[in-house]
Amino acid sequence: MCICVNCHYVDRCTTYHAVEIQHQERHLTENPTFEPTEPTINVNIRTPNNHEIEMEWDVVGCLSFKEEKGKWAKLRPGELVPT
Fold this sequence. Notes:
By secondary structure, the protein is α+β, with helices and mostly antiparallel strands. Helices cover 17% and strands 24% of the residues. It is built from two helices and two strands; from the N terminus they run αββα. The model has no long low-confidence stretch (mean pLDDT 94).
């Protein structure tokens, strides 16, 4: 799971913005202004059939991470939190 959903900076982070693009998700902000320090991204690649490739991007580490539990959920009340 992406640690960003519980990060204080999720709504203005350039790395999370890039993850949203990869997942084809609606952005929390169109113009992120926060550049995190040394984010680490895991990319999981799956081939559920021979004609399709699925990639899942998760930020699993970041020196700038500042925990704020439920930050993403506060920004999008009622929506399912990305996993």
